[in-house]
Amino acid sequence: MKLANEAGTGDVASPAAAARAWRSSLSPLRRRMSNLRGLGLVGLAYTVYLAIFAGMFLLPRWPGRVGMMLLCPVAIGMLFVIGHDAAHGTLTASGLLNRLLGRLVFLPPLHPFASWCHAHNSMHHGWTNFKGREPAFPPFSKAEYDALPWWRRWLERVYRSAPGIGLFYFLDFYVKHLLLPDRKRRPPYRVAFLFDRLLVAAFLACQVTVGYRLGRYRIASPEVALAWAVFAPLTSFLNWLWFMGFVSYIQHTHPDMAWYDREEEWSFYHVQLKSTAHVTFPWFVERLFHNIMDHPAHHIDPTIPLTALPQSQKQLENAYPEHAVVIRWTPRQFLRLTRCCKLYDFERHCWLDFDGRPTTRTGLAGLSRRAPAGEGCLQASDAAG
Fold it and tell me: Mind listing the pLDDT tens digit for each residue in 168-216?
């Protein structure tokens, strides 16, 4: 089934109307789930993860073990994206199986499943780019930033840097929303919330125990074997956290994408299309991480399984190219992004630097464009003018 205006000849003017029209016209085949396919994805990803984990301890030489440690975050990422689908109920056709598999694949990333479902499905998807309810990288206004104590202003400068996005994900999302949420952020299902955190703690202890026992086959010193059993999984996890921060950041932060702090301005379908980016990477990277960067299609319709996202995203962009936010990722583009998007002016809808100077054009909420790598930021002379 094709959209009537799939070739880009649509007459839908507003992004919200375009998103609704695309979702309502999507073929049911795009939402078809399969127990066999879901189990197969989990089995393959877990096999890769277990092989790499074993290699961190059983390879005969240290360079090989270190190489496996550096490769382990990739396997964790593969598992996490599968768990992300399970959290949305689209990995398999069974709700019970989705919950079981979701908890299983969320163990190597050390993410409590119930906490993630609440923070991601309810808060992130429900209030995308709305300040105060969206948990992922909400920007401060200049007044809010100036009112912070000196140490928090310093921390915000770290968070809004290329190395610091992983620290934000760890402290402001992972700890505050998943591990130790306050009453406002806590998921409503208390038993599952407690169970999942205990499950993650037990898995971490199991990792260290198994790593130590495996390491003793190759490492003569018990002390060195124990240190490596702690260091290797922990380093893999921290590297993975930076990757998660990186993905979360680039999907909804860009000089062309707006944030909101007033409900009368915010529109659910508008932000799913206009404040959610399709960031393109080389083909093998996108397939390795199960098409998670085909993000606008996922946000408009989270019931699309990961295997159907590329076709769905292409259909969306062909139907409404004037509303698509498509960004070709490069290291230069990423560094420019972190330089431009420090603070946000919620009145004029533009990004600011930490001194309050605009780094983008105003009126971002109404932008309709595709963004090649490197575009979007004003030069210093433009900002001064």
Answer: 999 999 999 999 998 888 888 889 999 999 999 999 999 999 999 999 9
Q: Does a structural domain hold residue 36?
A: no
Select from 325, 244, 241 the least CA-distant residue to 289.
Answer: 244
Whether residue 69 lies inside any domain: the answer is: yes
110-150 residue pLDDT tens: 999 999 999 999 999 999 999 999 999 999 999 999 999 99
Strands 326-328 and 278-280: parallel
Same domain, yes or no: 334 and 284:
yes
What is the three-class DSSP state of 160?
Answer: coil
Structure tokens that stand for 195 in this block: 């169970």
Rounded Cα–Cα distance for residues 256 and 370 (Å)? 9
Radius of gyration of the chain, Cα coordinates, nearest whole angstrom: 22
Q: Name the strand (E) or helix (H) holding 196.
A: helix 190-215
Long-range contacts, 167-174 (Cβ 8 Å, 24+): 167/245, 168/137, 168/245, 168/249, 169/241, 169/242, 169/244, 169/245, 169/248, 170/238, 170/241, 170/245, 172/135, 173/119, 173/135, 173/136, 173/245, 173/248, 174/111, 174/241
Cα(first)–Cα(last) distance of the chain, in Å?
Answer: 50
**Cα distance between residue 218 and residue 379, in whole Å:** 56
- Whether residues 178 and 307 share a domain: the answer is no
Q: Is the whole-model pTM more than 0.85?
A: yes
d(CA 335, CA 314): 27
Distance CA 324, CA 317 (A): 6
Same domain, 81 and 108: yes
Let me know: does 266 contact 150? Beta carbons within 8 Å.
no
Is residue 277 domain-shared with residue 146, that is, in the same domain?
no
Burial class (CB in 10 A: 0-12, 13-18, 19+), 227: middle
Q: Could you tell me where the beta strands, DSSP code E, fall in the chain?
A: 278-280, 326-328, 343-345, 350-352
Examine the domain organization and report whether 196 and 210 are in the same domain: yes
DSSP reduced 3-state for 144: helix
Q: DSSP of 208-226, one letter per residue? A: HHHHHHHHTTT-S-HHHHH
Looking at the structure, tell me whether residues 156 and 194 fall in a common domain: yes
Domain stop point among 221, 252, 283 = 252
Unique residue bearing structure tokens 């923070």: 119
Out of 252, 274, 304, pick the residue that ends a domain. 252
